[in-house]
Write a structure and sequence with these properties.
Helices cover 43% and strands 17% of the residues. It has 303 residues and is α+β, with helices and mostly antiparallel strands. Strands 4-5-7-6 form a four-stranded mixed β-sheet. Strands 1-3-2 form a three-stranded antiparallel β-sheet, with helices on both faces. Strands 10-12-11 form a three-stranded mixed β-sheet, covered by helices on one side. Helix 6 packs antiparallel against helix 7. The longest helix has 31 residues.
Length: 303
Amino acid sequence: MYSHLPVVLGALKPRSCDLPHYCYDISIMRRNAASSAFEEAYVQLSRAASLAGRPEIILLDEDADELDEFTGSRPRSHALLERLERAGRVRRVRRGVYVLVEATGGVRVDILDLIAASTPDPYLVTGGRALQFHALTDQHFRRVHVLTTSRLRSWSWRGDEVRYVRTETQLRSGAVRTRKTPARMATPARAIADSLSHPRWGVTLAQVTEALDAMLAGDTNFADVLAVEVARQDNHALARRLGFLVSQIAGPDAARPFLALIGTSKATTPLQAGVDPTGLIDSRWQISANVSLDRLLQHREVV
C-alpha cells in the first residue's frame, strides 16, 4: 500500500495532546511502511547485483529495470536511489555505478571488483598494480593503470585512482584469470614489460628489476615467456633493456631470445629513461648502462 511513497518520513515529534489518536497512529504506519519499502529496495538491488555476478555493485543501466518493477517508474527509481545514497546505504563510484553499504557501514568491494564490473571488455589491469597483485613488489600502487581499446574516463575509489590507457595492442593474450579477483590481470611478463615501457606510470627501474629477478629465480622458462611478450609489442628499446637486465641477472644464455628483437639501429638506448643517458656502453645490447646494476639489485641485500 505504501511501497511507492515519494519520501522516507523522518522521526515523529512527540504526539500533541490536540492530535487525535488515529492521526498519530496513521503517521506511525506511514513511517513504518516507508522504512520497510526503503529496506526492501535495498534487498532488491542486492539480489539483482548478486544474480549478475557482481555482489554489492550496482550498474544502473543493467539494474534499473529490477528497481523499476519495485518503484513503479524510472523517475521513482532514481529518487529512491538518491535517498539510499543520502541515508548512507549506497555510495556512488562514478556515473551509473554504485556500491551497496552494509547496515554497519562496512563496504567489502575493492577497486579490482569495480574495474571488473564496470569496464567493458577487452581490458587489462597492468603496471604496478599487477606487479603488486602477483606479489612481485611490496609497494602499494594507488594509481591503477588499465589498458583498454575504448576511450574511458578515469575515476577514483577510496583513495585509489583508475586510469584508462587506450591501446591498439593485443590484450587477451596478456591476461591471466584467477580466483582471487574477477578482474582481468596482466601476466607477470606483461606487467613487467608495460612497467618498463611506461616509466611515468610510477614503477621505478629498481622495482621492475626486483620483479624480473624474482620471476627468473622462480621460473626457468620465464625469460622465453618474457621474450614472446616483448615480440608482441615490437619495441626495440624494450627488448634491449630487458635483454640486458636478463643477461646480467640470469646470464647470456637466458637472454639469447631477446637478441633477435633489438633491431639494427646502432644508436644506444639508455637503461634508465628520463635521466642523464651517459654510462658504460654494452655493445651487444646497444645499451648505455646509466645506472649501477648493484643499485638495481639492492633488494637482494634486504633480509
